[in-house]
Amino acid sequence: MAGFSLLLNVALTLAKAVVGVLTQSQALLADAVHSGADVAGSFAVLIGLWVARRPADEDHPYGHGKAEIVAASLVATLLILAGLEVAYSAVRQFFLPVPNQDIWALGTGVVAVLSKEIVYRYQFRIGKLLHSPALIAGAKDHRSDVYSSLAASLGIGIAMLGSQFHVPVLLYADPLAAFVVAVLIVHMGYKMAVESYTSLLEQVITPEETQDMEDIIQHISGVCRVDSVRARSHGTYLVVDVRISVDPQITVMAGHNIAKDVKQSLLDNFPRIQEVLVHINPYLVQ
Fold first, then answer.
1. 232-284 pLDDT per residue, tens
2. CATH for 2-200, options being 1.20.1510.10, 3.40.1190.20, 1.10.10.10, 3.40.50.1820
3. What does the domain layout of the chain look like in residue ranges?
4. Going by CATH, does the domain composed of 207-282 fall within 3.30.70.1350?
């Protein structure tokens, strides 16, 4: 999926850039900059997915799942930088003569809107199913491209009307659309950056989300009490810390076997769990 997104972004970037230069459309050129950032972002996603699939090793005992989050962070950074550049170019255009627009620029924008919306819906669904931050980030990037291409198309269309009916002020709809595109790019990049930052800090999932885990542990033979269950995200998977209380009179081997049962039960019932750490406490009746 990431490979297809990369090819699509390259094609759209080239199309928008060529038509934007030929028609001198600031909105379409701004959209081309956005798609160019998508190309660089797609490369980052591909690298992140490749690294994340590598198995755990001595230096990375919990695997390489965070590589996807790092890739998502790179996409966010590229979007913000691209958005600021587009905003600068759009504002500058207000102080320069604005050329007339034609149907080629409008047609290119409409094609970009339709193609990106289709890819967004498909990639977002796949990302949710796989719990992949990188794929979801890439999908959101496609959606931001839909909005930016739509804004560019509207700006170009209004500018064409201004040219057709000799209303010069409407010609500035093109650079205005470019500025709107810039705002959309920066906003989406900011949201993605916040989400990536939260994931990098290994945010602990809520107690409500761990309740199902606790219910399963509580029914395992030998567990007298579930003291705590904490799960933190580690890229596409979860690492779980469990504290349970057992009969203090049993042997160490018996306690060890109970811990193994707890770990295996969680791994069997929750596909996202990659690692389970179980701490044994003595069960003391108050």
1. 776 567 889 999 999 999 999 999 999 999 999 999 998 888 889 999 999 97
2. 1.20.1510.10
3. 2-200, 207-282
4. yes
